[in-house]
Structure formats: C-alpha cells, structure tokens
C-alpha cells in the first residue's frame, strides 16, 4: 500500500517550469510584456531575430532561443547596423530567450524575460555559416591561456567600439563581461569613460558579452534590477576579482540549479496565462527581418503602447491579426543535427 501511495504522489507531482516553457516553439500572441525578474519570469508578445541579417548571423539555431521582447530584438538590429559603422563586421548572436521566456532546459539562469542577449566576441565572417557550422563553431576566448587577462593578440579597437556602442543605448542597463575584459577596458579606454559603469565583471563571459535592457515601458509586472554602482567600476570592486576568493570551489554538496526544481508556483501568476496563450500562425510572421521590419508586416503602423526608439517597433499581436491565412509563410527550416 505504501508503495502505491508513493507512486501516486509522484504521478501528480507538478511538472517543472523549464519543461513547460521549453516545449513552446512559438511565442504567446499578446501585447509585448515582461513578467517577473530576469531569473524568474516570462514574457508575452515575443519576436524572433532572423537567422541572417545584413550585419548579423544567429548561432545555435537548434536551441530556438532567438526570441525576445520587441524592444530588445529591434535594439539588436540597430546595434548590428551602427556597430558596422564603427568597424565591427557583424554580430554573431547567441542565446536570447525561449519563445515565451521562462527557465531554460539547459544553460542560463537569467534570459527569462526576453531582455537579455549574448553576443559573441568573435566578429562575423564575410561568409554565411552553414547550419552545421552554426551548431559546432566555437566562439573565441579573449583571454590568454587559462589566465584572467586579455590576450592582446586577440583584442582589437573594434572590440572596445562594439561594447562602447552597446553601452551607449539608454535602454541598456548592463553589459556583462569577464573581469579580465573589464580590466582591459579600464586600462585602455581614453576620453569619455562614463559608459564603463554599465560594463560589469562576471564569471564566464570571455567568449561573449551579455547585453541586458531594463524593464520596458508598459511591463508593470516586470521587476527591475538595482542600477549599477556609480562610477566607471575601475576600483577596488574590480580588484576583488583578481584575488583567490571568487574562484574558490564552493564548500559542501552542490545545490541543485534553480531551473531544475522550479515549478510554475515559483513564477508570477501571469506566466500561466502566457503559457496557455495561443501561438502565431508561423515563426516568420513574428520574425524581424534583415530590413528591420517584421516579415509580411512592412505596412503596419507602430503599436501605440510600444515606444519608438529610433527604429520601427511593432506589436506582434496586431501583425498577426492583419495577415490573411492564404499569405501565412511556412516556418523556417531547422537544421538536422543527427
């Protein structure tokens, strides 16, 4: 009898939030809005960045993590275009978010609100990667061997320029980089150094930099992060990263990662609504194309509840309702990784 009770309890256990959100292939059709915090939340009205644009290529397509709040996706398109003017050949875009955010099946603790994006420190090559290359080509570490310091043979003025450009956008609240990269900037940036305060040292992030924007207007259920400390960050707080303390192994048994135990009860109540919301008719219908507009939606006006930030912004819900069924494009193909 006891065995049957244990089995029954396991059978009705609440599923993990990562499994529920990871199973969603398309975003929630609703007004764009983020709910919760960067490491515990979700978002509606998501948009994808196209796998290829004039100044970007999306990597690791099989993960289906090219999705974000429209404000972030359009900002990435703008960054790719304006960084090219600074000498950066193009963005290799890594993980953004799952179609509806939420905890990921693997990897990041954050990236749940559609407000985070990883950009490789490897500049885009002159040719287009194949699907297989997008899955297997590795980003290049900026560090010298296994040290904490930047390899001067890899670091270029263009690396500084793309970080300066990204930090200059008012929507961007933080850019995470390896402490060695932060130190390199502290040692070499001349002229205006005000933007350096947004560039924060963090574990990892020597292959890519992490762009985070703040809670978008209209996302009243989004919990903002405390602003970075004042100053350029080139102080004693940076010195700490070059001691032994940050790199010591944790004591005691390893704790389970939050995503491996998080259920829907841990997320904002709105995330249940996001999870159950209908999907758009296709991926392409809510994908930002290379010309900075959503496919099939170039004639649509900006949604009134989305800010216009120097680029065209759309409400995916209004886009979808305006597309006749006969004109809905087929979803883009996925790479075969077997």
TrEMBL record:
Q: Its GO CC terms?
A: outer membrane-bounded periplasmic space
Keyword line:
Disulfide bond, Hydrolase, Metal-binding, Metalloprotease, Periplasm, Protease, Signal, Zinc
GO MF:
metal ion binding; metallopeptidase activity; serine-type endopeptidase activity
One GO BP annotation is: proteolysis
Q: List the disulfide bonds.
A: 42-271, 186-234, 215-222
Listed SUPFAM superfamilies? Hedgehog/DD-peptidase
The name under which this protein is listed is Penicillin-insensitive murein endopeptidase
- Organism taxonomic ancestry: Bacteria, Pseudomonadati, Pseudomonadota, Alphaproteobacteria, Hyphomicrobiales
